[in-house]
Amino acid sequence: MQNTERTDFSLWRRIVGGPALAAFGAAMLAISWSYPSGSVVQMGPGYMPHLVSGTLMFFGLTILVSDLRTTDSFETEQPQWRALILISAAVIIFVALIEPAGLVPAMFCAVAISKLANKQSGPLSIVIYSAAVTLAGWLLFIVALGLPLSVFGR
Amino acid sequence: MAEQFLLGLSVVLQPHVLMYAFFGVLLGQVIGLLPGVGAITAISLLLPVTFYLDPTSSVILLAGIYYGSQYGGAIASILLNLPGTPSSVVTCLEGYPLAQSGRAGFALLVTAVSSFIGSMFGVLIVVLAAIPMAALALKFGAPEYTMLVALGLVAASLISSGSPIRAFSMALVGIALGMVGSDANTGQYRFVATDALADGISLVSLAMGLFGVSEIIRNASNVETRKIDVKLSYKDLLPTRAELRSMVAPVGRGASIGAFFGALPGTGAAIAAFMAYALERRISRTPKEFGKGHLPGLCAPESANNAAAQTSFIPTLTLGIPGDAVMALIIGALILNGIIPGPRLIVDEPQLFWGVIASFFVGNIILLIINIPLIGLWVRLLSIPYHRLYPAIVLLICVGVYAHRSSVTDVVLTLVFGLLGYVMKWFRFEPAPVLLGFVLGPMFEENFRRTMLLYSGDFTVFLTRPISATLVFCGVALLAFTLISPIVSRRKTLKSLKGHGGPFSV
Question: In terms of CA atoms, which chain B residue is nearest residue A114?
Fold first, then answer.
């Protein structure tokens, strides 16, 4: 079920993890730089962001150091690029269609594209499956739950 | 106490409420047994739906999914050697060998009954602890809340399966994400990149992204290989008298461990199950039997994770402080329904408070009833291939997030968090603390700022107030305990378990 295997914690993964965290902290500090931090008694909106971003940068570097030293083997997964791209595409299509085209086209396209992420599905089965799921979705969201969404267009 | 419990029962036994309780545990059972779909995903999917229900039914429904999934999780572990939920990882160790030796039906019966006993013990503890805890909580001021939230974050980081510093970093990332929106004290916008973020990041999109979308990406391309090679025989379904006797003490110990770790903020069902298994192995007179279908190793963790699933509601309902990511979502559901969780809940909303607790009692009875006779149905559900399931989950996530606030930005953010949740695991970061930090962060900031304002920046207030000092002491003791000792041996256990495969997220 899981695409995992036991491999070494590869070098690039060791190098990227900590600095990515530190970069997140740095970006946070940069954005919150202008927020007044106030004093301990009268904390401003910037106090906690500055504290948290500083700690994140510190931890990021600490993690980098400890990752470079570790010799642990670690269960890693093969990157699932196909799934990553197609699932992302499905969500983006949904976002693009939901307001101009309405719920039913958005649902159908999102299901069909995400179904492509698995190589086992042939074209006919994708169409049938997507139609069935769209119908079920319409029954669930519009008929049963009565969500205030437009079915086709605005 | 009996009186309040009866009040709760009268709430639950109303037909429409009972229906939601039934629906919740049924869904939990199904979610638990399907590997790759977790309780967090299911609860976040239903979070927008609860907007249309009354608050009591909402919490009963969502809670049912959570403890129901603890039952279902064991089925996949026993029949497929694939844990359906993280807390049933250890169930594979004894359950699968037992099933292979032809006693699958027996193993399922044992886990269902152990789960039921553990749950009932947990419910009993919740009922007994509720009033004293809520009374104690009324004495809590800002310093106590500050320290309690801090303790929850520290405990969640220290007792995680990975490195504490990584887990704590992820909690900090969650705290950072929780800051988006307007500052509660001054109203100034923080990190508001677009207007759509003015109200902050939605809990629904964070949870569905981190857990739902990332799990789908991880598993979507799987070509199915799983097949149930275990025959369900109802031969020797019932335990012998000697077997029965060998299970009594482990179930009791498991329930106690589970009740303790469940109530402790920051730890939950998965940790309770590991601890119960490790304890059984350590005190056993026949440690070599473990891994071959040894009964105490099967029923203690099952009893523990179910007890923990119930007692984790103690801090959630009495203090308004979620102990883990699932409880964070339950708190979210209460807030969405306009109810402020905290010590006033038991006084202001007795119907909700006791109704939810009584629903645990009723829900577990329903679970016991649906588990054993319907086992054939559960096995058939297990054979649904994941590729028939996941596109429908993509759809539920998209529509669920969109319908929540009618915001396309939320859907895009869900995708961003999904990619984040997928990629972060490459670098050994776990997503669960992010969600906990997201919910606890604003609570921490608000109470910390209030404390400093009230006590003019005097940090000793945390040590001079008795309850707060006790919490600080607990945190320090936990830190010392982690640094010094037995955790080393526990790490080894965890490592040996990790090789076992299966989803290790919450």
Answer: B391
